[in-house]
Structures are given as C-alpha cells and as structure tokens.
Specification:
By secondary structure, this protein is an alpha/beta fold. Helix content is 32%, strand content 14%. The relative contact order is 0.13. It contains 22 helices and 24 strands. It has four domains: 286 residues, TIM Barrel (Alpha-Beta Barrel); 217 residues, 3-Layer(aba) Sandwich (Rossmann fold), CATH 3.40.50.1700; 59 residues, no CATH class; 58 residues, Immunoglobulins (Immunoglobulin-like, Sandwich), CATH 2.60.40.10. α14 crosses α21 and α15 packs across α21. The protein is globular. Bound molecules: beta-D-glucopyranose. Beta-D-glucopyranose binds next to loops.
Length: 684
Amino acid sequence: MLMESMALSEREGLFPTLNENNIDQIIAQLSLKEKASLVVGDGYKSMLSRVLRTKVPVPGAAGMTRAVPRLGIPAIVLSDGPAGVRIEPKRRGQEGTFFCTGFPIGSLLASTWNTEMVEKVGEAIGQEALEYGVDVMLAPGMNIQRNPLCGRNFEYFSEDPLLSGRTAVAYVRGVQSQGVGTSVKHFAPNNQETNRLWNDSRVDEDVLRQIYLKNFEIAIKESEPWTVMASYNRLNGVHTQEDRWLLTKVLREEWGFKGLVMTDWTGKRNTPSQIQAGCDLMEPGGKSQIKELVKAVKSGELQEADLDICVRRVLELIVKTPTFKDHVPSGKPDLEAHAAVAREAAEEGIVLLKNELGTLPLAKGMTAALFGVGSYQLLAGGTGSGHVHRPYVINLDQGLAEEGIQANEPLSSLYANYIQKNSPKKSFMSNMLGSPACAEMPLSRENVEKAVGEADYAILTLSRQAGEGGDRHLEDDFLLSDAEKQMLKDICEVYHARGKRVIVVLNVGGVVETASWKHLPDAIVLAWQPGQEGGNALARILSGSICPSGRLPVTFPVDYFDLPSSAHFPYDYKGGSSMIPSGKKIVDGENVGYTEYKEGFQVGYRYFSQPGTPEVSYPFGFGLSYTQFEVGEPVWTEDSVSVTVTNIGPVAGKEVVIVKNPYLSAFGKTRLLQPGESQTLVLQ
Ligand code: BGC
C-alpha cells in the first residue's frame, strides 16, 4: 500500500512522502479534511468485512486508520486482544487459514506472578500480529478487578495495582519487541460493564491515583506502550475520552506519555471536545465525525493547531508500524511454538486451592469419572472482543488421556451426546465474538452412582463464562446454582462412601463463591480460562508432571457482601450494557447513572488484611504446591530486596515470593528448583 502511494506521489513529483523526519512538512501539506480524516478511523470496514464484503488487509481486525495516498500515508490495522489476536480465521478467495493462538486470560497470566513468562506470551502475540498484518494490538486489558461481578474481569489482571501494572509492562514489552504496538485499556476506571457507555465512575482523586490509575502509570512509565485506549465510561462527570485532565495533564504532562490516545469503540460523541482533551484517534470512526471536525475548525469552535497536535501523534504512530515499514506479512506465524508458550503459561497460572490427604497428584494409569460439561468442553477464554479465533481447544479428557488417565465410560458418552444436542447454535455474533457455553447437564443421583463403577476418582469441572457488554450475576454465577450444589454433594457422597476422592476444577473467568462448599471435595484446582492448551496444562498439573505454582491475584471472599464495593456495584441489574435500568435508551448529556466508589481504598486485600474485617475464603497471593520451600529473610538494599528460596520438598517446583509493606511492594518467582536447590531472587 505504501509502495503504491509513494509511487503515486513521487511520480507526480508534487508532494513529499511521509517519513520519520518530515512530519511537520507533511502536516503543512494536508488539507483540513485530510487532517480530520486522519484522526477518524475507517469504521467497521475491517471488523465486519465478512458481512460488508469490504476489501481490507486484515478481515476481522477491530479497526483501521484512513490513508492519504498522495502523501504516502498508509492505513494501519488495529486488532483485539488481549488473549491473542482476534481476526477472521478464513479469508474469502484465499488459501490457508489465519487462526491465532488462544492464550490464557489476563487473570491467569497475573496468577503466574512471572513477568518473564508474560513477556514470552506478549512476544508470541506480537509475532502473530506481525505475520498476519496487524500494526497495533488493542491490549492488554488492565482495569483493576474492583468487584468480582465485572463481566470483563477475565481480561484484566488483578485487584492490586502493582501486580496489574507489572504484568502489563511485561505484556507490552513482549508485543512491542516484535515491532507491533499495544494499546493499554480501558483508561480508566472502567470497572463494570453495566451501562458502560454512559456510567459515571465517581472516585476520589487519591483513590483514583493510587489504585485505578496507578497500574496504568506503571505501564506507561516502564514499558512505553505506543497507544492508550480511553474507556467508554465517564470519570467524575466527564467522559474519559473528553477529559483533558486525564488524557493530557495526568497522562502526558505528569507521566510523560508520548504516544497516541484512541477512543474505545464508541459511537459519535463530541469529537471537537475529544480532540481538545488530547484524544487523538476516534475509533471505529465515521464520516460524520470528519465533517464535524471540519465544521468546528471553520467556525472557530476548534483551533486547527489542536487538531494538528492529534494529527502529528497519528503520523508518529504510523511511521513506527510494520505496514509503514513495508513489512510483508507471511501469514505464517509459528503457531506450534506459540501453542507451547500458551501451555506453559497456563501451567504456571493454574492455582491449587485445596489438596487434602495427598489427593493430588493423581496416579497415572487410572480411570477418572469426569463430571461437568466443562470437562469435555473447556472454556478457553471469555466472549466479546476478548475472544480469539483459535485453531482448537484441548479439553480435560483429552489432556488426561495424554497423561495416561482415561475418562470413564459410559459417563463420557453421556456428556458427549448431551453436548452435541445442547450446544447453542452458531450465529453471526457467536462467530465473531465467541459462542455461549453449553448449559450444564442435569445429573441424577442414579447417573452418579452408575458412573462410580470402574472409576478411581471423580473430577467435577464447574464452568463460568462472561464477556464484554454485561456484568455477571450473583445467583447461578458468583454463587453455584442449586443443581451444581446438588451435583457436587451427590458426587462427594457417592465417591467418599467408596473411599474414592473428588477433585473440583474451577474453569472460570472470575471469582466465584467457594466458602460454602469447599469442605466437600478433597482437592480444588482453579484453572481459570486457560487458553487453547488448557486441557493439557490442567492434566499435567493434576497428574503431577507439573508442580502447581500459580497464586491468586485477587481475593476470594466468603460472602459477596463482605466486599465493601458490593454496596456500590449494580449486582442485580439485568439489562443490556448501554441501557438505563428503565430500559430507556440513554441520550448523552442526561444524567445517566453513576457508581460511587465509596469503598475508597478498601479494595480486595487492602480491606481484608485489616483487623476486625471478615475472614476470606482464599486470600490474595494464595496457592498450594506439591513441594515445600524455605524462604529466607528479605535483604533490603536501597533500591532492591533479595530473598533466598530453597526447595526443601520432594519434587521440583517454582515458588512465588510476595513482599507486602503493608501493600504489595515487590514480588518474584523462582526458576524450576530441584529438591534441595536454592535461588536468590532479586525482587522487583
Ligand atoms: C471494547 C474494546 C475493544 C474494542 C474493539 C470495544 O467494545 O471495549 O476493548 O478493543 O471494542 O473491538
């Protein structure tokens, strides 16, 4: 594309062609309309190319910018994220496929507490983006997990700003090492999906800066993402995309951000105000916004100089991209190597929550009765823009078979038939944003009894799915449903009566209630949504091929209402994401709903670690292992803290060291330590 436009402008000999050093000269050549077109994206051409039948470089990519061919300015391609590249896996009239690796969700990546591992994931995602023609990844998602019911928590990292910030730094460095940009999102505080386009997050400035902005600040200062995505919501009355205080004063003047700010995929808002605030690129963008900007400059409502600032930032972004540099995407990233990275990451982020009587690891060569639809149809990730068109998902039964553990018949066939008959039909939306999960199979006590025959133990997978555009609910989501509780009770009674063990696998995107039932099974494994290799990773943990080393990045409370934020979260709201509770369409400018962050600093363990607060079910940082470690006293120097860790247990494993002071102030993870081996970790 660039070659064509260069040829055109050079042939004509009339215009300069964009390069890194002539941006001023290019701006001087641009007409007002061209300037406006550069800050307004090219609509849904790429995201909906399959239905619109548009010819675009990367079908299914979330958005593009607009080209100005006469000046050698190409259109660049933006794609979701965060659990991999989200593009169409097949292209009309083209051979081959464009599947992308489905990596584990953000919460699992944070559970690794291993920034090197996350950086490796970022590199793999960056390489896929590069070889499929994407210039900027709309990732990582890094809003604070304020409340477990936020429907997008799975895309986010943690309740703690340091863990969230450092995980984001690793992700950004990984992707950008491949010459592809990132967009840290959603700036900020976008901590719920209910009424997300309009909701006003009302947060004290101190709390905002120390919790909800802190993680972004770390990411900006330590990894220099090429772009930032402003959120849908308002912050203290102002849409973040029109908030000059947030986008210019804090982000650029205080933190020194030099890159570009784009909108989230908002419909038209007050475009001149967005430009004035320092929001440089309107996505997905529409022609009316170009007209609006031209008119605003002509009428004097908007200074052309303000528009020029944004145009400059768009051009500065463009000259860094693979498209501008004439990179020809091979269409052949190393999917095999990336699947191995996805599996390793999942293995490091799966958290062992309970293991009594040495239930785990499971002996190989045994037979497992696998209960729960999720055992046969593992949820690899969430839905919405965070969905990835991955080539396959390894289920738990398949992973266990690789580890020499067979799924018990006829139970497996019963589930297979049920799933075949009851899986939701594919639709246009599910093809684009991920299929809803198959509902749980009703299980009679009789079926549980029948299944016990040959099986040496039972594994029950409990699954939860959430996604962009809606929050989770308390009933049947945060809480187990009555049917799930009954199933768990029946399985435990029947198996325990025969001296056989029961293991629960949580295949969830966010926190669920565990306190009321965790005494029933013998072991509990939190698999999160572990990406396409999830079944393999999980099976390797269950069989002991891998020693678990994940730790919780978020608190599991006993009761939802123990969380201070629960009093200020729309937990019982059942409407869509852009409607007010009455069901009336919201009109901008109206006072349209708000969330007061009245809990202030009392987020997650910051609250529960204070005296007199309720017990939690599993605390922040919790996770068991198959081995034991001795962790020495921390040694402090002026700018670092180091700790020596020794594996004093029976098997090789990794250990996470967490220093709280009183809040998380440093952490690190060892390499794989053999029994008896030590490592001195310098914590960050
Ligand atoms: C989401 C963003 C995403 C964008 C493009 C929006 O609805 O909030 O996270 O990057 O769509 O798909």
